[in-house]
Amino acid sequence: MSGVTMTNLAEVDLGKLESSVADWKSVVDKVDELATRADTGLRAKADGARWAGVNADVTREFVGKTAKEFKDAHAEAGSIHKVLDDAHTELVEIQKKLTTALHKEAPGLGVKVQDYGNEGGSPVIHVFFPHDRTTDDTHTQEQLDEARHLAGRIANLVAHAQEIDDSVARALAKSHGKDGHNFGYETYTSLDDAEQQRATELAKLGTEMTDKQLAEFDTLMKWNAKDPDFSTAFYKSLGGAEETLEFYGRMALDGTEGDDKQRLALTRQLQSSMGIALATATDTGNEPHLPTTWGDEFRKLGTKQIALYPGAINSPYGYQILGGLLRYGNYDPKFINPIAEHIVQLHHENPDFFVGNKPMTGGADLDWGFNPSGKTGAGYDPLTSVLEGLGHSPEASKLFFSDDMTPTVYNEDGTVRSGTLDYTYFDELTKKDFEWPPDSLVAPGSDAAAHARDSGPDALGHALEAATLGHAYDDPAPKLVRDGVSAAIMEKVVATYGDPENVQDPVADSLGRMGAGYIDDLNWALNDNKADSLFSPTDSGGHAQFGSSGAIKFLSSVGQHPDGYSDISTAQQIYGTSALEAQADGDRINQPHAREIVRTGAEIQGILDQSRADQVTAEGLAKDEEYNKSLGQKAGWVSFGAGVGIAAGAAFLPPVAAVGVAGTLMPVVMGAGQGAISQQISTVIGDSAETMQQNSGSTVQEQRAEIYRAGQGAAASPMNSFMLRHGISSDNDRFGQDLEDALNSGYGKGTNGENQQGVLPKT
Fold first, then answer.
1. pLDDT digits (tens, 9 = 90+) for 560-587
2. Helical H runs in 302-438?
3. CA 643: distance to chain centroid?
4. Engineered SS bond to 457: which of 243, 247, 479, 506, CB 3.0-4.6 Å?
């Protein structure tokens, strides 16, 4: 199946490969029998014979070699069988996924899929909407995005099959060798074994790998990084912790130096796949896994300078190199948390320990170093790197920030010492005067230098998201996982960031997503966390008690930042929509609950709007343009047709790359049923997008009025949709008038009575 294409992958009869696997199993069994007979019969008799002369010198040796050949033949046959068997299993699964994509997903989307073969070794897949003479051939951005994603998934399936095909071909060639009269070449216990051995061969080339070889290495690592057998064997083959740092450090510097975009892209893939593989190999829940001493070794190497090249000046510390790998992968707390503890303790003792060892480039070659991705810092300070690692490791992050964690105290060299800390890691990293490292290579005094310290707070926000929400901060398919520990951390987050002086712009978007993830508990808090509140949780665990004052301070503080404001505002509309819909049981509606849902939701929106209006007063109209931009991005969920996913009591608004908006996950009330909620949410977001402000006013006073008008429109959208759906009118329906009164009451309370706009007409 050389030169795999979508077409031949879809059409190939894998039953023939299955038959070959069965045939080779038969060969293995038969050769095993022959090898046993040769060893216990032929060679045993030869060894026991009383030969002398030529028979003793030649015949016995010949018989011994013959018996060995049978044994080698058995080993070779077994190797071939195992490689083919694994390949068949994996290809069957890939073919099933491809069949589903071609014959179910594509027709469901109304697209055609064309196979353009391979270009430069990569599959070229074209997914398009066929011409329809009954329409104008226009499609929503959601449809276009789904078509693009489908093409990407199909291309990945084909690329994975190609990697398997290439690996099998290499393994078979090495198993057989070039001598037709001799067995006993490479043997493999599995396809993973063959792939790992090839990855190790390439790794030994180091920076001498050509772009083609590096691409092959990346492909092998990409498709096997989450396989414990492969990842563990690969890292062992490098030698140990120090050899791992030496290999990755040299590859990172080689790939980020200069302006070779292709090499940089390949090195970014290497960083990602090696990080994920390290997380797999160090996870004690996997079998096999690396010895736990690897973590100890990395910690001891953290403050040791690693000589990547002979005679190099200012060799990097181990943690500076390791940080590049920690940024990718979901790490076992037993591995990453001791490293994170050590790094925070080092920073506490000497904030400049690591950044004092970064190169002076004068603002040139800004991505040169150990973080080829370029995300959240240049990678020379491991504090940012390890926080990014925690941001991808929910269980580790939750434990790290939990009050239940008993810190281990470390010496500078990573060895454990007796003693206790007089601070918690949460308090240390969130204190007002915490000195974030300038993890950047920008020239001092340049415009970019003003943001050199932004990466740290950004990474901290990511780590706190993982700890409180239970998923990696950038998980494309997250699940909301909250328990008593994560809720307790969220209580600390709300208390700490209720002080606006603690909220730096880089962390505000994370706070917005955390607020969205606990929007149900923010509603409950505004009911003073009363046990008889309709928002009082009916399920056990995973709920935080912020108190009314704490919730108001947090909303007011986060509302001063555009991204935080827009995330919580959108989340409240979605949560309020689901909560209202849950009050309807056929023709019967729980009117008191519905009124309180409208009132509380309007109060939350009012608090946000008051904070926003105050920011515009303090900073001028330019600030409000940032709010409008952020809200416009959130409206992209509607204007770009992004679907709203509802599952397990949560709604997920996925990322929309076209408008630069991150995904947001939030709880919903499932009483109305999944389908009804999804439809209502789409309607509400659309209505809100239509009523929101489009431009800033010409004066601050005009803009404040516009903020209140648009904000009350957002607060009203769940209510208006609910009334329209259930035939409720405020003109001649007392209940409808009560709902509008509740809206005005809640919004007025949230804005301290400044709003005078009145209820917007129903959409």
1. 998 899 899 989 999 999 999 999 988 8
2. 318-326, 333-349, 382-391, 394-401, 425-430
3. 20
4. 506
Identify the helix (H) or strand (E) that includes residue 511. Answer: helix 505-517
Q: Which residue has the tokens 């309020």?
A: 576
Q: What is the dihedral of CA 498, 502, 505, 511, to 10 degrees?
A: -40
The pTM (predicted TM-score) of the whole model is 0.86
- Res. 63: pLDDT tops 80: no
> Angle at Cα 460 formed by Cα 427 and Cα 615, nearest 5°?
90
Axis crossing angle, helix 547-558 with helix 562-581, rounded to the nearest 10: 130
Beta strands in 49-121 (DSSP E): 112-119
Q: How far apart are CA 381 and CA 354, in angstroms?
A: 6
361 Cβ neighbours under 8 A, 6+ residues apart = 368, 441
- Beta strand 122-128 with 584-585 is unpaired
Asked if 283 and 332 count as a contact pair (C-beta separation under 8 A), the reply is yes
Pairing mode, strands 650-653 and 645-647: antiparallel
Q: Cis peptide leading into 288, omega within 30 of 0?
A: yes
Measured in whole angstroms, the distance separating CA 426 from the mean position of its chain's CA atoms is: 22
Rounded to whole angstroms, how far apart are CA atoms 388 and 395?
14
Q: Fill in the DSSP letter of residue 220.
A: H
Listed residue (617, 623, 725, 746) closest to 680, CA to CA? 725
C-alpha span between 264 and 617 (Å, rounded) = 45
The answer for residues whose C-beta is within 8 angstroms of residue 524's C-beta and 6 or more apart is 533, 535, 536, 537, 543, 545
Write the pLDDT tens digit of every residue in 392-435: 999 999 999 999 889 999 999 999 999 999 999 999 999 999 99
Dihedral sign computed on CA atoms, order 430, 435, 438, 439: negative
Residues 6+ apart with CB under 8 A from 282: 289, 290, 294, 295, 331, 332, 335
What average pLDDT is seen over the chain? 85
* Contact between residue 335 and residue 295 where contact means Cβ atoms under 8 Å apart: yes
Question: What is the per-residue pLDDT for 100?
Answer: 92
Q: Are 681 and 644 in contact (CB under 8 A)?
A: yes
Burial tier of 454 (Cβ tally within 10 Å: 0-12, 13-18, 19+): buried
State how far the Cα of 592 lies from the Cα of 573, in Å rounded to an integer. Answer: 19
Residue 524 has pLDDT above 80, yes or no: yes
Question: Three-class SS of residue 467?
Answer: helix
Instruction: Compare 598 and 447 and report the one with higher pLDDT.
Output: 598
Residue 641: the pLDDT is 45
> Cβ distance 172 to 228 under 8 Å?
no
409 closest CA partner among 426, 393, 423: 423
Contact yes or no for 59/51 (Cβ under 8 A): yes
pLDDT-wise least confident of 103-117, 263-277, 481-495, 675-689: 675-689
**What does the DSSP 8-state code read for residue 644?**
P
151: its two tokens? 């093409």
Cα 569 to Cα 285, 555, 635: the distances in Å are 40, 10, 12
pLDDT score recorded for residue 389: 98
